[in-house]
Every structure is written in C-alpha cells, then in structure tokens.
Amino acid sequence: MKIVTRRAVMQGLATVSATNASAQRPAYDVAVIGAGVFGAWTTHHLRRAGKRVLLIDSYGPASSRASSGGESRVIRCAYGADEIYSRFAHQSLTQWKDLARRVNTPLFQQVGVLHMGGRGDHSLKATAAVLSKLAIPHQILNQSELVKRFPQFSLTDTEQAIFEPESGALMARQSVRLLVQEMSQQGLEVILEPVQPPSAKSRLDAVKTASGRTISAGAFVFACGPWLPKVFPAELGNRIFPTRQEMYFFGAPAGDRRFTSPAMPCWIAPDNMYGIPDLENRGFKIADDDHGPPIDPDSADRLIPKENLAAMRKRLAARFPAMKHAPLLESRVCQYENSANGDFLLDKHPTMDNVWLAGGGSGHGFKHGPAVGEYLAARILGSQPPEPRFSFSSKGTVQKRSVY
To answer: What does the alpha-carbon distance between residue 60 and residue 33 come to, in Å, rounded to a whole number?
Structure first.
C-alpha cells in the first residue's frame, strides 16, 4: 500500500496551483499591434522595462502603406507656444541619435531647420520664447539676413525666420526598420500578419490573427496609424481622419549644390510648404502640409495626378526660381492620420481597460516616436500621469487643426 503523507499532499496541491497559475498567465505582458514609429518605440521602452512584448504588423515595419513609410522626415523643436511638443521633439532627438550610434548608421542628418514667418505671423515670437526656455539652440534671422544666407529661396512673403542648427532630417523607413531589427536580434518576436478587430466589452484577453492564431496578453497597444478607424470604427471612425499626402523629389541643375546640405536646410514656409534637401542623391523633396483628401491605406493607388504635379511645379518655381525646369525624379503618396486638432491620441480605450490606443500623428508625429513610446510605456506601467491633450475624451469629431 502506498502511503501518502500530508507533506506530499501539500506539495501536490502547490504543484497543481502553480500549474494552473502558469496556464492562466498570458503569453505576453503586452502585445503591440502596429510596427510603425509609435508601435516600435513603445515596444522598445516596454522591453527596456523588462516586459515580455510581442510586435505584430500586417505588412512589416514602416511599410510603404504606413504613415511611417517613406525616405525622410523633418525633426524640429519649434512648435510655437506648444511647449509639450518642443519637449517631446528635443527628448526624441537624443534617442534618435542614440539609435543611430547603436546601429552604426547615419539615421539623423543634422542639416538644420528653417522656419519662415509671414507678415503678421506672431508664432515665431512664441517659438523663440519656448526654445529659449528649453535651452534649445536657435537663431532669429531678419529678411536681409535670410537673403544673404539663403539666396536660393524667394522670400517675398517672409519677414523673418527661426533657424534651428541642431535639428534636421531623419531617415524614416530605415530608422524604424533598424530599430525593429535591433530588437529582433535581442529576442523580440515579430509576427507579420493582420489581427482581427477586437470585440470585447470590458477587458481583452486575446486577439486572433488572420490565420486563426490566438495571442493572449496582459495589455494590448493598437498603434495602427491610418488603420485605427478600421480597427475601432465605433470609437475612432469619426475621430481619426486618414488623408492622402503627396511628396515630390525634383532634380537640381547639374553641379548646383545649393539644394543639398550644408547650403540647403530643411525648411517650412508661410504657405504650409516644406522641404528637405537632397539626401542620398534621391532629389530635392518638397510637399504641402495642408491635409489632402481622405484615403484608404489598403486599397488606394499611389499615383500622382498630372494636374497635381503641374500645380506643384508652379509652387516650386515660385519658391526656388533656379528649380523652374527641374525634372521630377520620384514621387510618393503616403497618409497622415489626423486627430481633429493635431494632438496625439495616447490613452486607454474608452471601454476595454487593458487596451491602449496610440495614433493621431497628424503629419508631425514621426519625429516624436521615441518620446511617445516612452510616455505610453510609462502610462501602461502606471508610472506616468496622463496628459489631458493626449486623452481619448479630448478628441473631437470635426477637423479644426491647431497643432503644426
């Protein structure tokens, strides 16, 4: 006869209890859906905090359909009186430089950023005050100084400008791809597969991929960019507005170095045009920051209509007379995913208490990726108080942009 002691019984109960606890434990602490700049940097900061994280994306990190795709983005700290974004940008710049050092790739191009102010524009004064408060290097230039320093510009609509010598351009797609690659080499699991929209009422236990795989996690971050209204149509269908944005790369005259660094900085003009100097010999980039028409990121063709190209050529020639006959080398169509006023959405889902929403980049969000990831990771971990401007409750349903 086998004798079972009380000690053995207790040990057996403890084993069963541990097994049950293990079975109930989610496979991951956090599952991040979306491998764009917000999702990738949130994953990075959660992993630095020791969390088990899974990263999921339908098309891959910073794909051409995503808002984080494309060659380059401006990183600047000037935001008028919006100090929170100046702080985020400055904080992010340090982390972008750190990433570039770690992966030994020139992801940040310190070409400077020129902010041109039109007549009666009072935002430059507010910008200078914030930059001074945060000890961010900048120079205030009057029109005569601008004409002498940047003779390639037509400045008839510009009275003065602010130049940020330590800002510049980020190599966008390459930066996100290398960040995800770095984490993958350190053990991050990445799944390239669509996720079915969740339908939980209060708490989300798991998501299912298109192939039927069930993924459980303690928390979920949906950083889906222009897909957010599709994933959460009831909550975000009328709060996040994906728009079509066109980018043009023109070829400067042979031997003319005025459109490359150091002669040409990144620039933002009073008419909402902006540009990036020729990087990696791809061409002089120019685009309109005004919101374009609605776009479906899954089905939209990325072709530039001839009439749009003709209109951009006129604006290019008006701003840069030497580029009047410049050939188009390349064009791209991407998308902004705008909130009503341009503030980010970085908050809990209104009913699913372990689901977090990260979006509303609104055309200016890429540069802030590292700070956004740090902020959202801290919110998830309970160490960061909420910023009201990033809350779900503050997101309107009528577009009235106020953040540039």
So the answer is: 11
> How many residues are there in the chain?
404
Do residues 63 and 335 lie in contact, with contact meaning Cβ atoms separated by under 8 Å? no
Domain boundaries, the chain: 28-394
The tens digit of pLDDT for each residue in 125-137 reads 999 999 999 999 9
- Contact status, residue 297 vs residue 227, Cβ threshold 8 Å: yes
In order, the DSSP letters of 81-140 are T-HHHHHHHHHHHHHHHHHHHHHTS--EE---EEEEE-TT--HHHHHHHHHHHTT---EE
Amino acid 173 reads R
Residue 275 near residue 115, CB atoms below 8 Å: no
pLDDT digit string, tens, across residues 103-118: 999 999 999 999 999 8
CB of 195 closer than 8 Å to CB of 183: no
Write down the CATH number for the domain with range 28-394: 3.30.9.10
Both tokens assigned to 355: 């689901």
Q: Is the Cα torsion angle 209, 210, 213, 214 positive or negative in sign?
A: positive
